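--- STAGE predict ---
source: upstream dedup step, 1 unique chain passed
mode: sequence only
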Amino acid sequence: MDATDSAEDGGGEPEEDEGSKDAASGTAPLPGNSDDFGVKRMVRSRYNYGKMVSYANKYWKHPNSAYRTYGTDCTNFISQAMRAGGWVPHGAIAPRTNNRFWFYGSSTLITSYTWAAAENWYWFAKKHSQRTKILDNVWKMAKADVLQADWGRDNTIDHTMIVTKKYRGTPYLTYHTSNTHDKSLKKLLSDHPRAWWYAHRT
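--- STAGE serialize ---
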């Protein structure tokens, strides 16, 4: 089974009620050549998607020793990749329980919930910072986009992954816990047919 985040892994209840999430992304295959969907205009972006992907490809198996690892390390790993690609920490000394902030510190007690817990990361990335938007279909994902999963459809996101390859219209995902490189979206959907998926355009 893939990762399931918990409070012990760096997250927990935020300071405020966040309301409702966006609708989950659809999973129906796209017509025609889906390589035409989800192309990013990298030249205009504030972020370096190539660096995000390179980071994930480099550290998927052996974690970067500059960061600590968590029992469930998937979102910690994705936060590192986003930072490598240009996401600037926000908050630093702000309350770690507030989903408006995203920062890494020398101990868990001075690291935001949003850094290492999937549910909290969603709210920072999509709602508060608007650094991502939810795609209406998972097959539209491009390199460096992020896919999150709610395995049990209980409205709590459990797992976070990054797209490191797209081949013949199929995104391939890389993640920690368990450490996995270039797993096809098709296989993920097959392995977890009941999950809700949230595909983030980064």
